[in-house]
Write a structure and sequence with these properties.
It is built from no helices and five strands. It has a five-stranded antiparallel β-sheet, with no helix packed on it. β1 and β2 form a beta hairpin. The radius of gyration is 12 Å and the shape is globular. The two termini are about 20 Å apart.
């Protein structure tokens, strides 16, 4: 688990799940956690999850809960 903070990341995988969520794997691209892979679950995403591959993202962890933008 990452400490609370904001992380620059890159989407390296996105897979739909049976429950309708999408499992998104991100790698942190800078800072002391560079190279760590984090998985977050997203719900209600429009479009094909494959379109997320290679997209830069900002991962924010607050009180241990991640959010992705």
């Amino acid at each position: 688990m990452l400490a609370d903070g904001t992380y620059d990341a890159l989407v390296v995988d996105a897979e739909p799940r049976d429950d309708g969520a999408v499992s998104i794997d991100l790698t942190v691209v800078s800072g002391p956690n560079k190279g760590e892979v984090v998985t977050v679950l997203a719900r209600n995403l429009a479009g094909d999850p494959v379109d997320l591959l290679g997209v830069p993202a900002t991962l924010t962890v607050a009180d241990g809960a991640p959010s992705l933008r």
